[in-house]
Amino acid sequence: MIKLKFKILATLALISAIGIDCTSLVKPATAQTAASLAYHLKQAGAKMYSASWCPMCRRQIQVFGDAFSQVPYIECFPAGRDRGFNPHCENARIDSFPTWVINGRTYRGLKSIEQLANLSKYGTPSNTNDKVKICDYKADLIFYERNPQMLGRKISSSQSSLANEWSGIRRNIRGCQ
To answer: Closest by alpha carbon to 111, among 176, 46, 45?
Structure first.
């Protein structure tokens, strides 16, 4: 009887270890990278469609950590699993979770930070012919990587050191003088 219990416990431990390895394939990003990408996704008009009861959606949220509050997020079941489907999700033809809509294309399933960066053209301004936009874009990314607490906030006159930092970054980006 003790051998059977030991075998059962060993099997459960093995299954747990395999499960942990499988779910850890998409690792959380550093806070700076996650904050900068979240800001970029918001600026790009990307959306994540999700359901609060979905385990993969919870894992996707964990990938961003605290920066997830900046990710454009649409809850498809705001009143609960059995209480109706959000019309925004229906209009977007969402049928699995999580689902990302980035640059008008739909991507289903859990995505790594690297995948989301590639899909959203993170680091590539949309108008590469406009030198000012390229400089501002790069400066924004560097600034928010250094100051993730400022995501979604305007810099006030009392925060002149932050404004100076941003303009200093912009001046020092190669080709942006």
So the answer is: 46
- The upper half-sphere exposure of residue 134, i.e. CA atoms within 13 Å in the direction of its Cβ, equals 11
Question: What type of residue sits at position 139?
Answer: A
Cα–Cα distance for residue pair 109/126, rounded to 1 Å: 25
Q: Is 159 helix (H, G, I), strand (E, B) or coil?
A: helix
Strands 99-102 and 73-75: unpaired
Contacts of 31 (CB under 8 A, 6+ apart): 65, 66, 67, 148
Distances (CA, A) of 150 to 33, 42, 46, 104, 146: 14, 14, 20, 28, 9
- Using 50 as the pLDDT threshold, list the residues of the chain that sit under it: 12, 14-27, 126-130, 132
The structure's pTM equals 0.57
Q: What is the pLDDT of residues 3-55, one digit of tens each?
A: 655 555 555 454 444 444 333 344 455 677 788 888 899 989 999 999 999 99
120 Cβ contact list (under 8 Å, min separation 6): 37, 40, 41, 44, 46, 102, 103
Q: In a 10 Å sphere around its CB, with 0-12 CB exposed, 13-18 middle and 19+ buried, how is residue 36 labelled?
A: buried
Looking at residue 76, its pLDDT comes to 95
